[in-house]
Design brief:
This protein is α/β, with parallel strands linked by helices. The protein is globular, with a radius of gyration of 21 Å. Residues 1-11 have low confidence and may be disordered. The chain starts with 15 loop residues before the first helix and ends with a helix. Helices cover 44% and strands 17% of the residues. Strand 7, helix 7 (164-177) and strand 8 form a beta-alpha-beta unit. The strands form 2 sheets. Strands 5-6-4-3-7-8-9 form a 7-stranded mixed sheet. Strands 1-2 form a two-stranded antiparallel sheet. It folds into 2 domains: 13-87, Orthogonal Bundle (Arc Repressor Mutant, subunit A), CATH 1.10.10; 93-205, 3-Layer(aba) Sandwich (Rossmann fold), CATH 3.40.50. It has 8 helices and 9 strands.
Length: 222
């Protein structure tokens, strides 16, 4: 079997700021495409509309291998597809969610995840009263079944929305069962072996930053 030379080339690390900007470009371009505002677009137009430097936009898009056309710019439709493919959003990825409290239930009900290639197919909880019920069409299983179902279904993404005391043990169980990426909404940072991706979303820390910025603005106006 012949192997494409591109598959054996070392991949360059992608700057995290670029990864954070690409979804912003995508949402902007997707809206423009859906509303049929224009067929082609330039980095200058994108930068001006999003309050970013056009040179930064050009560098970010270059990482995705997007190709513009002389005097026309980028095809909006092609650019949307290129970003989708680069981020893996054109292939829905199945995930399990653990912890069906208020936050977990809200995430289960969020339909926008599918747009970004995430499909939460089931949830788990230790509360017997929730087991066997559904939240937004997703069945709730007992957390004792988590490891076995990860192995049987080959799930690679786990979402943690549990209290601090349970987070690390559940993260360990997920990794041992085959989870390769954990999206952690728990109030503590979980530790995982090298090679396992962990994305922490600390809502309390974000609130502190927001409150501090608001306090500074209010103080400046006094």
């Amino acid at each position: 079997m012949n192997i494409d030379e591109k598959t054996i080339q070392p991949t360059k690390p992608i700057p995290e700021p670029t990864l954070r900007r690409l979804p912003v470009y995508y949402q902007y371009l997707k809206k423009m495409h859906d509303e049929k505002q224009t067929e082609y677009i330039s980095c200058t137009k994108i930068g001006n509309d999003l309050n970013m430097l056009p040179i930064q936009v050009r560098k970010d898009l270059a990482i995705t291998d997007a190709v513009g056309r002389p005097k026309l710019g980028y095809s909006v439709a092609e650019l949307v597809g290129t970003i989708e493919e680069f981020l893996g959003w054109n292939n829905t990825t199945d995930a399990y969610l653990v912890g069906t409290g208020n936050l977990g239930a809200a995430l289960l009900g969020y339909q926008g995840f599918r747009e970004y290639g995430l499909n939460i197919i089931a949830a788990f909880d230790a509360d017997e009263s929730k087991v066997g019920t559904e939240i937004c069409g997703k069945t709730i299983f007992h957390v004792k079944k988590l490891s076995d179902m990860i192995r049987r279904m080959g799930i690679k993404i786990g979402i943690l929305t549990v209290p601090a005391y349970a987070a690390q043990e559940l993260a360990d169980n997920m990794v041992q069962a085959g989870i390769q990426a954990i999206w952690n909404f728990s109030p503590i940072k979980v530790i995982a072996p090298a090679g396992i991706i962990v994305q922490h979303e600390n809502l309390a820390s974000s609130l502190v930053v927001l409150s501090k910025k608001l306090a500074l603005i209010i103080k400046a106006k006094v």
